[in-house]
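Below is one record:
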Amino acid sequence: MTFNKTHIEASSNGAWQGDNPLNYALPLLIIQTLLVLFVSHSLTLVLKPLRQPKVIAEILGGILLGPSALGRNKAYVDRIFPPWSAPILETIASIGLLFFLFLVGLELDLNSIRRSGKKAFSIALAGILVPFISGVGVALILRKTIKGEQNVGFAQFVVFMGVSLSITAFPVLARILAELKLLTTQVGETAMAAAAFNDLVAWVLLALAVALAEGGDHKKKPLVSVWVLVCGIAFVFIMLFAVRPVMAWVSKRCSSKHQGADETYICLTLAGVMLSGFATDLIGIHSIFGAFIFGLTIPKGEFAGKLIKRTEDFVTGLLLPLYFASSGLKTDVTKMHGMEAWGLLVLVTTTACAGKIVGTSFVAMMNKIPVREAMTLGFLMNTKGLVELIVLNIGKEKKVLNDETFAILILMSIFATFITTPSVMAIYKPARNSSSCDDTRRRRRQTEFPSCRQFSNNSDKKNLRILACVHGIGNIPSLIKLVDSTRSSSLIKLYVMHFMELSERSSSILMVQRTRRNGLPFINRICKGTEPGDRVSAAFQGYSDRLGRVKV
């Protein structure tokens, strides 16, 4: 049976009627998704002993499935990843990216970036400027060496190269710090603050790069990029000063105090993500900027938590891996011909890593940070990730980066992220001072919070103290029955510990960072209903009020 690629149908009539499901869009998309998830999760397990972030496995999975490895088999490509299916896969992946950037904006706390301090700002600034300037020099060499790049506008190519070399991946860095248990160290806190500022600047630079790329075609009017920038700034002002108050009202309406139909508001908010993406695409900036800015307009609180809970797992677990894989599928290492191309890869990688590490470390030492910790900061700030891939994909989409340049920059970002964890483990040894720090924190907690001291020593023999560890709502009835069975004439003091799984979200990482710093939970935030633990807290508090003989 011959297959007409000019007319693509969504679903087949079934194998019994002679149709091959792989010739139809939906069955083929299902097979592609399953294959991507299987390969990426398998590589995640393989790389887990090396403590590599998940993004590495997902990009490598795409490269293995793409033209660099399995894609060299023509029968495999024609059957599993035919050219006509690429726009469908990329569209689904882009929808996932759209909502992921909405989640990033939803969780990004601009106030915390503002409070980061001069040290973090100076380190972040050095981590951006030095690699960016180095990227300009590398761009000049690549334009003269790689065939076809001379036809690209100089300003567009230089900006894309500078941005791609100067980016730090905030979510990936946060996950690495959590894995290495460095969140509450001085290095971890400084790196997180600097990376958050770096991430924000990266989006501004990327918007500039896209605007320049839009105006880069010589057939267009030269003022196109100026109009794109002006309209982009106007869009940001409208979102922050007109849409933000509306979303603040919606957030209040969906709080626990108002039992409104919040499903309608959630659906309208998710529709707003798509509408914002369409608006920025209409302006000429990528649609992800609209979703990101719309996320910034929603106040942090209970409504934001509901949005995250409804969308995060589906977006990050299913759709986002497709975007990483599609980046790998576009990466064709075979386009790097001869030793000259591999020499350029070494040059780009060395320049990117050296610029980031040396620039960050030097400024850190000027801020009186010890040499080992300064070098550790340099390697941590060298982490690449999602924003890097977005920059490279947009550059390829706008014809600023050709196949060879794209492959070189993808391999550079993989190497830079891969060396982060081993390098930090080799340089930084926080275990030597951990015991004294723990003793200091313990003494400070017992001085400032008498209830903690009462819990830690056994001087009070009249009270029965119980520590109840809760993972979720389903654990509450059994624990209450246990407390009831031990209730006697003496007063029971019940200490409830709510276990929450550490996810890869930046808000989750920051929550753990702040909790470990003072050793106490977010009582105020829980009482306000802004955390998932509010229902657990309310259930035990109600039990305490009802009985009177149990103090929680």
User: Anything to note?
Assistant: The radius of gyration is 26 Å. The chain has a mean pLDDT of 79.
